[in-house]
Structures are given as structure tokens and as C-alpha cells.
């Protein structure tokens, strides 16, 4: 055992092998290589030994000098041998080739000085190039292999399975092997491609997905890493569900665009998120249509510091807007968004604007200064129970704020105004939902006589957005539980933040004016099942490690959300995930008059009067009227 530690200390000291040692090793290889090349030229004919010795006396100093110069110039000795990869081998070949070309020039230069005889025959140079390249590369790979044998004994490391037998899978395996922080050994590849099943990759067998369950049961690997390019959502879900059944921790690698300098880092391999279980088929955007809409446009995004607003901002960047006007009243999140635009996207064509959308003079000043071509209106109060206790603020922000923005858009001839609404506006049972429904009605009616194209987009809950159930469950899991759910039968529609914003852009690009666009939200999800999956993904057991507790419905809360009311019917569009809501609607004059009355009521009278006026405007609104406390504004 002491001998093994001595070998480790000698070959792989704590601070890596010094560069000068590698440099001397390479020069030794060079000397052996040129000698061997000469021997090969003479077919190892020993009677020519004296002549060979005389030639080597002249050749070796020249070769060593030229090779040493190229090694120093290209710093081929500066790499860490234990982390050698294919790129290092290519670099070695380039360095050796450069040296061989330099030796060729020396040959030509000395040709006349040596009675028209080449100092080093070009056949020897060719053989020497091949031997030197092979020997330098092989020496590094041998040392790398020895390092892993000494320091990463397979028997001592937990097993890891990689799902994906393609270039991403190979890169992931190599990342695990080279990273000093990795304590895992890859024991198998899995893939759903039948043509790969049974073959070997990186000296490991490729297994088919159908064998995953039996493999996990037999070998009990600690982790499975999702590392497949273009992994279909159904395939991903099947892998994750199987791993959860056998308590195998699931990780995934980030998109290639997130890799550091084009290289995958071990620290970037993270645990999967609940969103990975809900991904539907990828959204295919009509990018040409969106680009035509957005390119060189001045775009105002309200609520820009929020989840939807900030994601919209990030997605708009790639379509080449002339300028983004980012409006929010939240100072710190706006600052965070600005830093992200500068550091993550190197995007500078923006203007940060702090302001309240209910401040009419401020909004007029913003529209007058920037003259936006397009407005994406994401600013709103969205928290249902909070708006039940503060109904005047729901009216002020969600209705009055929308009215002020829309009027300014019309006054300053904004080309398009996109309202971002919610499924809670459908058959609302709360003030927040009713306020968003009234905003929808106002926007749709305003379109009848305005030059501005007013359009509404409606979708359900966004995974991971601020105030949503996902961040709350994560925090509760970190604290050891319990996870609190208001009702055991509660269901919700979900889509990812990226998905929602992509569809907003697509709907905006196809709008002609007055439409309410409804997004395909897929199947509704039971919140209790969502909570259980989140617990299992965290490596814990529901009801054993983490409890689930039901607290009762909150004010204004529904058990099941809806996407359409009884008077609405969906019509298809050219995009399979976007529909148009068809409905009858009241006259514009009546809507304006009702909103003016509601705004007046919201500041002067009681909660009951506010909800009564809302119900008059939205007959399907059924207020729970749970909050009856004094002092409610």
C-alpha cells in the first residue's frame, strides 16, 4: 500500500506535474523518435552503424533545437496530462507538424552547404513526424489512464448511468472522468435507438430503454444523467418515471449554449426539475413571421421585471428589436434584469423605466418619449387571495392600468398592443379573475374603432413563476415539510415560462386585431400528484420523509380552472397550440361607461359594491364573498 502511495506522489504530485518535466519528457521522445526513424530508413541494417552514428551526431542537435523551439512557442508542455482529451492530441499533431516543416526548411537551407545532400532525408522527416506524434500522444494517454487507475478505483465509486449514446453522452462521460470533483464511475449507456442497442461506446455496453427497469433493480446505480440530444418529452418522462420507481437520482446536462467556453463542466450537471416531467412536444415557431413583426421595432414591455416580462424580454432579443423599453415599478428586480441583459446577453439596446402603470402622466411621458411600435402588457396583480382582500388595487392595476396604457397606445399610434391574460378570467370566482376578464373585454372592444391592433393572449399557470406553487413546494421541501395544499382534488393547467412567452410572440405575429388567443395547456395536473413527484425527485418519500397537509380553499380559489366559458368556442389557427376564442360582446360605449363607474366605485364604496358592479359587467362572475372584514380596501 505504501508503494502505491509513493507511485502516486511521484507521478501525480498534489499541485500537478511541473511543465519542465513534461518538456524534458517530450525532448526524450524526440531523440528516440529521430534515432528510430534513421534505423527504419536503413531497415535496421547494423553494418551501417558507424555511418548512422556519424549522421545522428549532426541531426540530433538540430532536431532537438527545432522541436524545443516549437514546444516552447506553442506551450505543448503546459497542459495537465491527467486531463488530456482529443483536442490535446490534435494540438500535439499541429505542433509536431510545424516542427517538421521547420526542419524541412533547414534541409533546404543546408542543401548547398552539404554538397547537395539533405541533412535529414525527407523520408526520415516523414517517419519522425508519425513516430513523434504517436509517442507524445500515447505518453499522455497512458499517464492519464494510470492516474485514473490509481485515484479513481472503480470499485470505490458509486455507479452512474448515462442516458444518451451520442456525442452528448460521450462528453458527459469524459466530463465525469476528468473532473477531480467527480466521485462517480459510469457503468452503462442507455438509449431508445434500437440500432445502437448491444453495441459498445467508450468500452461500455449500450442498453435499450426497455431494459432500464431491470438494470436499475439489479445494479442499483446511484444516479442517471440525461445527456441525449433532442430527447423527446415522452421518452424523457418514461426515463424519469422509471428512475423514480427505483429511487435513482436523476440529473441532466444543460443546453449546449450554456456550456462554459463550449465545454461541459461537472458543476453544470444538475438535478432535474419538475418542469422536465411536464414538457410537451417542442413548440415550433414561425420565426420569420415573428422577426418581421419585431425586427427594428421599439417595444414596450410592462411588468418587465416579473417572470413573464423578463422572459419575454430575453426572447425578444434574438429577433433584433431596435429598442426595448422595460417598465416596472419594482426597482431591484429591474436592476437584476439589467445586469442579466449586459452580462448574459451583451444586449445594450434597452431603456430601464421605473414607473407605475396607474400613473397616467408618467405613462403619457413614456409613450411620448419612446413612441413604442409594440406593447406587451404583462404588468398585473395575479395573487388571488391577496386581491380578494385588496379589491380596489385589483381594479386600479388590472383594469385602470390597462385602460391608461391602451389609451396612450392609441393616442401615440402604437402598431400593436398585446394584453397577457389568465385562465382565471374564465368563469371567475375571485376579484383578480374578474378584473382580468374586464380588461379582456375592454381591449377587445377598443380594437373596433382604433388604428392600433389590440389583442389578448390567455393561458394558465406558468411553472416556476413568482408566486406559483413550484417555488413554494421547493422551499417547503428544503425546510423538511409539510407541503401544504388547499384541497386534495385541486387541479391546474401548467406550461413552462419559455413555452408561454414563445406562444405570446407567435400569437402577436398572427393577430389582426380584437382576438383573444387561447393557448393549448395540455392536460390539467392534480396538485397533490405534482407535490408527490417533487418530493420523489428530491430523493425523499411522500408521507414518510415529507408530509402533505390540506389547509382548505382560500378566498376566491377554484378547485378546477377552466379555459373557456359557456359562451365561448375555440377556433383553430395555423399554429396547433394556439386557438382563437369566438364570442359575442357588448358595445364599446357601454364597456367604457361601465369601467368608468367601476373605477369610481372602487375608491369610494364597499367591497360588496365593487363585486356587484363586476358581476354586472361579467355575468358569469360568482364572488365567494368570503372576506367580510372591516377595513378591507
Helices, strands, pairings?
Blueprint: H1 2-11, H2 19-41, H3 49-74, H4 86-110, H5 122-151, E1 159-163, H6 167-178, E2 185-191, E3 200-201, E4 204-208, H7 212-219, E5 223-226, H8 233-245, E6 249-252, E7 270-271, H9 287-294, E8 298-302, H10 307-317, E9 323-328, H11 331-343, E10 350-354, H12 360-370, E11 374-377, H13 384-389, H14 391-411, E12 416-422, H15 431-446, E13 453-459, E14 461-463, H16 469-478, E15 483-485, E16 491-492, E17 494-496, H17 497-510, E18 516-519, E19 525-526, H18 527-537, E20 548-550, E21 569-572, E22 578-582, H19 588-604, H20 607-617
Brief write-up:
The chain is an alpha/beta fold.
Q: What this model shows, in words?
A:
The chain has 633 residues and is an alpha/beta fold. The protein has three domains: 2-151, no CATH class; 154-272, Rossmann fold, CATH 3.40.50.720; 359-617, Rossmann fold. 47% of the residues lie in helices and 15% in strands. It is built from 20 helices and 22 strands. Strands 10-9-8-11-12-13-18-22-21 form a nine-stranded mixed sheet, with helices on both faces. A seven-stranded mixed sheet has the order 3-4-2-1-5-6-7, sandwiched between helices. Strands 14-17 form a two-stranded parallel sheet. It is elongated, with a radius of gyration of 34 Å. It starts with a helix and ends in a 16-residue tail after the last helix. The model is unreliable at 1-10 and 626-633 (pLDDT under 50).
Defining traits:
single chain; 633 residues; alpha/beta; Rossmann fold; 3 domains; nine-stranded mixed beta sheet; seven-stranded mixed beta sheet; 20 helices; 47% helix; disordered N terminus; disordered C terminus
